Amino acid sequence: MPSLHQALENAVGRDACLHRPDELFVYECDGLALDTGRATAVVLPRETSEVVAVVRACIEHDVPFVPRGAGTGLSGGARPVDGAVVIECSRMRRILEVRPEDRVAVVQPGVVNAELSRVVAPHGLFYAPDPSSQAACTIGGNVAENSGGPHTLKYGTTTNHVLAVELVLPDGAVARLGSAAGGAPGYDLVGVVVGSEGTLGVVTEITTRLEPLPEAVETLLGIFPDIVSACRAVGRMVRGGLVPAALEILDQRTIAVVEDSVYAAGLPRDAGAVLIVELDGAQSVLAGQSERVHAACEAESATGVRIARDDRERELFWKARKNAFGAMGRLAPDIYLHDAVVPRARLAEVVEVVCSIADRYELPLSNVFHAGDGNLHPIISFDRRNAGELARVMEAGREILQACIDAGGVITGEHGIGTEKRDFMPLLFRDDDLDAMRRLRTALNPEGRCNPTKLLPTPRFCAEANPHARGYDRVPLA
Ligand SMILES: Cc1cc2nc3c(=O)[nH]c(=O)nc-3n(C[C@H](O)[C@H](O)[C@H](O)COP(=O)(O)OP(=O)(O)OC[C@H]3O[C@@H](n4cnc5c(N)ncnc54)[C@H](O)[C@@H]3O)c2cc1C
Q1: 95-212 has which CATH code?
Q2: Backbone phi and psi for residue 169, each to the nearest 5 degrees, phi listed first
Q3: Which residue, 5, 25, 82, 346, shows the most beta carbons closer than 10 Å to its own?
Q4: What does pLDDT average to over the chain?
Q5: CATH 3.30.70.2190 spans which residues of the chain?
Q6: For a substitution probing ligand 1, which of 35, 52, 145 has the most ligand atoms within 8 Å of its CB?
Q7: Which atom of ligand 1 sits closest to the CA of residue 31?
Q8: What is the Å distance from ligand 1's center to 71 Cα?
Q9: How confident is the model at residue 475 (pLDDT cuts 50, 70, 90)?
Q10: Which residue has a Cα nearest atom 18 of ligand 1?
Q11: Which residue puts its alpha carbon closest to atom 34 of ligand 1?
Q12: Following DSSP, what letter does each residue of 398-436 receive, concatenated?
């Protein structure tokens, strides 16, 4: 039998197989840089058949494997367990088919999110899920995380846009699930795969819906004295029957850091918070909606409402919003970016609680979030080199998540569970609920070889949940 490295090189070619320590170092983590592991090799397949050959090599050599896209995930999903083979899909980046009449595209998983919208724009179409990382993240990663973005409020998350997938199962079989025509009979396994965080196999092809580009777009900036008023304006708009394409809040600290950076968009530095409201649709209805947005902002103490004058200013607003996390590097060397969802009606109240938790721990907190979905992103800036600071950050984070759960929320809106929140799952689900999920994973991934240690907490006795598990689930967090 050839060695593992030889088998991997046979599968993908020498130039697509990395195993030098300096090459592997790059793959030690995803965007959750606090959690690292060391892979034994990284492969970059171009075709489904190469993924199958890699998976078979892993089976023969009894090693786990980890699917990976661009590594922008924020919950440790693509971080390798020690000794794993990373299957990085970034070379599977072909758009295989665009069918404007069916409003469907068929893509390989490594296609970058923003690239798909760029390519289908001449057909008057776009791909709606738009994570703020869309210039880098892949559709495969989006499928695995069920990613959202600013336009989730009106258009839904990735799961609402995936019609079919091709999946290389952990035993090397290739399953084609769903149908481009929509509404495939049988179990909704596409729904199961979307959001499964790479624990059920490697997605090698995706059939997505495409949406018609709206006739008109108007982007407004509500300016508020404080973040609570901005949250209340969101509630007022939705209660009043408005469903904007996006409702995004940036707080005062975020405004300052963005305005100090290359992403400056002319946001008012003296505002307590700004609310970006994007309306899209027929030109004839936009004017009426815009008036209602003005009225809702004014009723909640807005000190002003600006309308982006042109596409350039509109792009500036979005650049500021989508690059705010990056700009946070100006505040401190490390950030901890949380992701939780609360019922929209409790948004203002929970944001206040979150701010008070950070104050109590004496940690600088910024808030920039998808307010329309109740999807909070409290960001703590810190320096892990300072003694005791990381421990305070983790403790504050735990309290923040608990506050969101207490308000009837959940522990992730879009970034997934990964390794980061795996041990928080019992706060949300009962044993029976978690067992049902484990049984599902075991049905498709019986040996636990595919992306072990992610998503579900390890049961007290591993064999209780899965007698065939190889024990990869017991690999401790680094
Ligand atoms: C600045 C910034 C802003 C962000 N904004 C948003 C946002 O607005 N909304 C949002 O939802 N997320 C956001 N994210 C998080 C992240 O970009 C998304 O989770 C994204 O979907 C990850 O894609 P990726 O290609 O980088 O996947 P990776 O990070 O490489 O992997 C993510 C998960 O997907 C699995 N995976 C990857 N490819 C495959 C495949 N082919 N088959 C099976 N499993 C696979 C991995 O195993 C892992 O579990 C942001 C991240 C950053 C850094």
Answers
A1: 3.30.465.10
A2: -75, 160
A3: 346
A4: 95
A5: 216-326
A6: 145
A7: 53
A8: 6
A9: very low
A10: 73
A11: 141
A12: HHHHHHHHHTT-BS-SSS--TTTTGGGHHHHS-HHHHHH
